[in-house]
Specification:
Blueprint (H helix, E strand, L loop, with lengths): L5 E2 H8 L3 H9 L6 E3 L2 E4 L1 H15 L4 H9 L8 H51 L1
Antiparallel strand pairs: 1-3, 2-3
Helix pairs in contact: 3-4
Length: 131
Amino acid sequence: MDETLMTIRQMCDAFDVTPRTLRFYESKELIFPARDGQKRYYNRRDRGRLKLILRGKRFGFALEEMRQLLNLYDRGDAQEEQLKRTYEAARERLAQMERQRDELTEAIEDLRAQLEVGAEMSMAFRKTAAE
């Protein structure tokens, strides 16, 4: 990515988002496009932030959590605190996702077992009705 400014349409095309999405992220203080009247122009920093926002969204991070992590970039400590906090948040989110996966796997197995019991009962009822 270079320093070229992008319009809202270019951003939408590049990141497969809607103008409404970009305006929403702007209202939540996640991105800060330059404004010229009604026009918005996005720089390299905005593009980088949007890429991280979309990745965080995919991983299930809350917008407020992403905003706090992104704002750590400006602390002037060579992003050390941002990297540390992002790593910790990612490890916590991964653990949560793995717990959810395990719970879902267990629920799927239980449902399959119930369907088998239901199928057996259905066959038994049909057999009894046929006799």
